[in-house]
Amino acid sequence: VCTGDLGMGQTAKYDIETWMPSRNSYGETHSASRFYDFQARRLKLRYRDEAKKVRFCHTLNNTVIASPRVLIPILELYQNADGTVTIPGALRPYMGGRGRIERQ
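^ that's the sequence the OP posted. Answer follows.
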């Protein structure tokens, strides 16, 4: 992300995007930001280095996943003609091993 789009204290930010067929483009589903010691100073989050000097930690701030945004590509790419949704292989362990979601 360009520096003009960084929030307060952010030194770097990476947007992770997913293909969304209805948009015919990629859309942001989550992001990761680096803050160096900005957040740690406000939280007084410190550690002692090997020389026993007290230093501030460097922090990262990440959105794990924006669930409404990630549903768009899952439904667009995995919904079947009968209305069921095939669960992508990578997500099946988190869905009890199920292979599809059906209407009830």
